[in-house]
């Protein structure tokens, strides 16, 4: 399993970012995929998941309608559109297979600050 996230950066509160994750080494189109995050000094936190077909998203309560998860199975790609970002969204973001934290690969850092 190889998962590589990208698209993070520094953004002001209220701004937007679109994260991407490219997967390889497994049958991507047969697995639920998940975004998780880890803020400095804290444990991993579930952000969002989407089923194999891409039709059933789920979000953590803190998302409050600000994020949209999607996937493109033709490209083995997972996405997370993040709008109205808040400072508390600052974290390293990872994509994982199903909800298995141990499958995370390279994450992408999101910093929300003025």
Kindly describe this structure.
There is one protein chain. It is built from no helices and ten strands. The protein has strands spanning 2-6, 9-11, 17-24, 33-38, 44-50, 57-59, 67-72, 77-82, 91-97, 108-112. The strands form two sheets. Strands 2-10-9-4-5-6 form a six-stranded mixed sheet, with no helix packed on it. A hairpin with a 6-residue loop joins strand 5 and strand 6 (57-59).
Low-confidence stretches: none
Largest beta sheet, briefly? 6 strands, mixed
Strands, total number: 10
Approximately how much beta-strand content do the residues carry? over 45%
Query: What is the subunit organization of this protein?
Result: single chain
Q: Helix count, per DSSP?
A: 0
Helix coverage percent? under 10%
Along the chain, the helix and strand elements come as: EEEEEEEEEE
Radius of gyration: 13 Å
In angstroms, what separates the terminal alpha carbons? Answer: 36 Å
Structural class: mainly beta
């Amino acid at each position: 399993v190889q998962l590589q996230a990208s698209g993070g950066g520094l953004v002001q509160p209220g701004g937007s970012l679109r994260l991407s994750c490219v997967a390889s080494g497994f049958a991507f189109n047969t697995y639920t995929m998940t975004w998780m995050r880890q803020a400095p000094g804290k444990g991993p936190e579930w952000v969002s998941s989407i089923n194999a077909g891409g039709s059933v998203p789920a979000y953590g309560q803190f998302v409050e309608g600000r994020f949209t998860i999607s996937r493109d199975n033709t490209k083995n790609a997972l996405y997370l559109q993040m709008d109205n970002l808040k400072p508390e969204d600052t974290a390293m973001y990872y994509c994982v297979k199903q909800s298995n934290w141990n499958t995370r690969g390279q994450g992408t850092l999101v910093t929300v600050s003025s």
